[in-house]
Amino acid sequence: MRTVDDCADVRAGDKGDTLILAVLARDASAYSLLEDVLTSSSIAAHYPLDLTAPVTRREMPALRALVFTLPGALGGGVTGSPVLDGHGKTLSYHLLSMPLETSPHHEQ
């Protein structure tokens, strides 16, 4: 089964305790697949975290990117969280491991 890592790179950032994940597709067909599969709901299901608000998705087709925000994912933010990964860098790696359930028009 294909994963996000097969067709994209992921960068992580933070704003307070909000995790920001940018998924950067490697080509147009990968962007089309990711746009179909990576929804706010699928991202929320992949991250079983106690979020303070719903996951949001912003589409940036000119850059072939999807940007997700996960409010509260960092448990207080870089300076306030007791976790080792206050910036959420390992959480971006976790997204790369997400399986891509594809529809027939995206099968390879």
Task: Write up what this structure looks like.
With 108 residues, the chain is an alpha+beta fold. 23% of the residues lie in helices and 25% in strands. The chain contains three helices and four strands, in the order ββααββα. The protein has helices at 28-37, 40-46, 89-96, and strands at residues 8-15, 18-25, 56-60, 65-70. It is globular and about 35 Å long. The relative contact order is 0.28. The model has no long low-confidence stretch (mean pLDDT 83).
Feature tags:
single chain; alpha+beta; Alpha-Beta Plaits
Write the layout of secondary structure elements.
Elements: E1 8-15, E2 18-25, H1 28-37, H2 40-46, E3 56-60, E4 65-70, H3 89-96
Antiparallel strand pairs: 1-2, 2-4, 3-4
Query: Which fold does the CATH topology refer to?
Result: Alpha-Beta Plaits
Largest sheet: 4 strands, antiparallel
Low-confidence stretches: none
Number of domains: 1
CATH architecture type: 2-Layer Sandwich
Strand content: 25-35%
The CA-CA distance between the termini, in Å, is 11 Å
Strand order of the largest sheet: 1-2-4-3
> For this structure, what is the CATH class?
Alpha Beta
**Which structural class do you get from the secondary structure elements?**
alpha+beta
Number of strands: 4
Number of helices: 3
Integer-rounded radius of gyration: 14 Å
Mean pLDDT: 83
* 3D shape: globular
Helix content: 10-25%
H and E order: EEHHEEH
Please give a quick description of this structure.
This protein has 108 residues and is an alpha+beta fold. The chain has helices spanning 28-37, 40-46, 89-96; strands spanning 8-15, 18-25, 56-60, 65-70.
